[in-house]
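Lab notebook, bench 4. The sequencing result for the construct came back, and we need a structural model before the next group meeting so we can plan mutations. Quick request posted to the team channel:

Model the 3D structure of this chain.
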Amino acid sequence: MKVTKKILAVMLTTILAVSLVACGKDAKDTGNGKSSKDGKVKITYSMWGSADEGAVTQKLADKFNASQDRIEVDVLAIPWENYMTKLNTMATAKELPDTGIMSEAGVLQWAEQGMLADISTMYGKNDSKPLDSLAFRYQGKTVAYSAANEVLLLYYNKDMFDKAGATYPPASVDNAWTWEEFVSTAKKLTLDKNGKHPDEKGFDEQNIVQYGCLVENLAWQLELWPMSNGAGYYSSDGSEVTIDNQASIEAIQKVADLYLVDHVAPLSTGATDDSIQRSIISGTCAMGTGGAWNVGTCLASAREEGLNYGVAVLPYMKEKLTLCTGGPNVVFSQTKHPEEAMEWLKWYYQEENSWSLIETGIWMPILQKWYTDETMTHKWVDNKNFPPYEEYKSAVVDYAMKNSKSASWYYVNNTVDFNNLVTSILGEVWTGKVTAQEAITKNMEALKTAYKGTAK
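Done. Here's the predicted structure in token form:
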């Protein structure tokens, strides 16, 4: 997904697109209902991207084509800036491709409009299925699976901890820090220009040279904390807005108070997704929250340059959890060949087909066997791009398997409008001009309107 204000899902989906994109075919050749010259059912898979990027994926599709004698997959590349416009035009003309990638936040909107097929039968009872948290569902039916898994984690600078004599954050969810323990440790790692900590007399909050933490407050990631505090932006089934629940408001205020009251975090306005770059990579913070993709997108190169980092589970307020996301693939309901489209996607979802992204740490596998079969987990994690095996397995693999909840767009429509509004109304909360209570209460009707998709 890509929206004007770059929320994290934009960056993540862009990463997914760059890795999977397809070659430039004639947009009129949708393949929907057609057969190739040799009698195979012709399936078109749409992606956004350049012809050069797409050539790689077409080679992969050709490998699938050669593996059986019933289906032929052609890949349709559409430039990103025109992708959704082109799909909408094709939908109106009833010329949609058979299958393709979508943004996380667009899936339920298209499902509500009847544009997506039910893919609940894609995996049989004896198959290793994707983690349940990676299924997009509409009215009880699965309409998409994420192509990759991404969870939120806590990263930290081991050298800063060693220098402060502080205990590393726990890699095991059983030993996860409470929010209060997290803040207390962050104070030990926060220093002003005179070497004083926030809880020491004479601490100069105007001249902090090292912060203890940075908690990403981008709207979709911020919801983790209301959920951890027993609430959330929405009810558990997504049927109503609950961001005005006192537990939600309390959690958001606690995140704001890391800067305003505790003085352990720098000001963060919730508008960018670069918390790891701004925290432990920049050397300004001892801890930072962010997605698993950071292992491959920025932390590997930072480690080569000398960063001694570790990965841990997140602190919690009431419930120990993390959020997951990942760009989804769908089967469009206009296809005349849903079974063949699902067969292609099931093959395409195999981790071997995206191994370069998995072994670098940008993606995590989606199939359960990679989380439960120790041999396969070792194959995934035992490489130079990752933290030590036991640390990563506990803090990431086991955590994602047992404590992960789906981000809201897996079960709530109109999350783009809602999250954009959350970003806007919380701006003055981060700077302390208003409280979370004041900002949310004042804008609750507008938030409900955005949730219903009727915001102007």
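The two ends are 20 Å apart (CA to CA).
Will bring this to the meeting.
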